[in-house]
Amino acid sequence: MERINQIMEHPVYRYHMQRIEEAEQNRIFCRHGLEHALDVARIMYIQVLENHISYKKDLIYAAALLHDIGRSEQYERQIPHHEAGAGIAAVILEECGFEREEIDRITEAIRTHRNETAGEPASLNELLYHADKLSRNCFACKAQKECYWEPEKRNQIIKD
Fold first, then answer.
1. Helix, strand, coil proportions of the chain in percent (round to 5)?
2. Alpha carbons 91 and 144: distance in angstroms, whole number
3. Which residues contact 123 (CB under 8 A, 6 or more apart)?
4. Which among 59, 86, 92 is positioned nearest to 70, based on CA atoms?
5. pTM metric for this prediction
6. What is the pLDDT of residues 28-67, one digit of tens each?
7. What's the fold here for domain 2-153?
8. Model pLDDT for residues 63-89, shown as the tens digit of each residue
9. Closest of 124, 82, 87, 83 to residue 106, by C-alpha
10. Domain range summary for the chain, segments of one domain joined by +
11. Rounded to an integer, what distance in angstroms lies between the CA atom of residue 74 and that of residue 82?
C-alpha cells in the first residue's frame, strides 16, 4: 500500500482535498472527503473478495481515493468533477509510480463513475459506481427531505 500512502501525501491530492473540505464545510448533503473515499475503497474491496475478482488492492484504493478529487474544480469552475478528476488523478498516479495501463484503467473508472455503464459487472468502472452509491447511508441522513437524489437511488436499507 506504499503507493496509496504516496497518493494521500501527494501535494496535489492534499491541495484538492482541502479545497473540497472548505467548499463543503456547510453542506447538509453527503460530503466527498477522505472518509467517503475510504468507505468506497473498502466496499469495492469487499465486492472484489466476495466475488473472487482479480484486482490489486492498491488499484482499488487508488480509484476510490481519487474518484471525487475533481469536486474542487466543479465547485470553483463548474467543470464536471468526473472529467476534472480524471486529469488530476492522472498526474498524481504517474508521480506515485503507477504504470500507464493502471493509470488508464483508474482514470477511465473515475471518468465514468457517475453513470452505471453497460460494462461487465466485474469492471473497475462498475465496482466504483456501485461502491460509491452503496457508501451513502440515506436511511440515516438528516437531509433526506432536501436531497436531490431520486428516491429509487437512495439507500433506504443496508444492502449486501
1. 65, 0, 35
2. 36
3. 109, 117
4. 86
5. 0.88
6. 778 888 999 999 999 999 999 998 998 999 999 999 999 9
7. Hypothetical protein af1432 (1.10.3210)
8. 999 999 999 999 999 998 989 999 999
9. 124
10. 2-153
11. 9
